[in-house]
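Journal club prep — side note

Before the paper discussion, L.F. wants everyone to see what a predicted structure for a comparable chain looks like in token form. Sequence:
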Amino acid sequence: MGIDLGTANTLVYVSGKGIVLQEPSVVAIDQEDKVPLAVGEDAKKMLGRTPGNVVALRPLRDGVIADFDTAELMLKHFIQRVHEGRSGLIAPRIVIGIPSGVTGVERRAVMEAASQAGARDVYLIDEPVAAAIGAGLPVAEPTGNMIIDIGGGTTEVAVLSLQGTVLSESVRVAGDELSEAIMQYMKKVHNLVIGERTAEEIKITIGSAYPMNDEDEPLMDVRGLHLLSGLPRTVTVKGPEIREAMSEPLSVIIEAVKRTLERTPPELAADIIDRGIMLAGGGALLHGLDTLISHETGIVVHVAADPLSCVVLGTGRVLENFKQLERVFSGRSRNL
């Protein structure tokens, strides 16, 4: 079983079956009984809409486990959901994709959570490596491949060759920070308080990273709470405003890409110019982001065919070609 344990979404891949589960990484818990009421999509609908005795929370922040018990509950729930109606997966071998910049303690927390959730063996693989394998890059060959994996909590920039990471950089600025920047902008400029879900909706609907030439800039009506009157209000926002709002976190991502390119050995840099840069992760879906990175670096940028699923597809390919790709793991734990 391969798991992409993401800040925003968790995806599960089962050998021979493909991707069997794709759910938001959200858990709703009853505060009194400490029991989960909903996990995944059902829990996401409750974000910001729960009564006092129920709390909907995301157990992962910036790509790492922030709430261990809740993360364990969530993993257990997803593993059991995948098991339903299947035999032979009772204590699965699990490969989990994690950000390359996490500490040893954070790695152990992920292993521990998976072990407690019922895994027999737990293997960890760095997300950029898994994303590159999932995107179909020839990571086993002695050529340079560059991948940018923009998730919910972290952006991973890595140069890979011969099944290994030559150099990588992980910045804790990604989809969540873009949404946060939109929330702050709406509060500062329009005096409108909006929630996380609304900010994400704005980002997906009219957000862009680079000016569009061919079409009129899109508009969107946003509903929220007006700060001055304290009453609900509707405000119309334009695409360029949102692009301006997201410019700061986007520039952090661009800087990380440039820093990685500056440190790349010349032979691998030549390969990257030939092949281009691969963009993966949910952040790759932001309109015009590939154009912005290409404009800033002067290198062609390709968006993966299915950016959201790259990491989990990579963990699945590693499982199915275990012996050939065994060198890609960054950590392992075995339950005895």
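L.F.'s comment for the group: The first helix runs from residue 41 to 44. Keep this in mind when we get to the figures.
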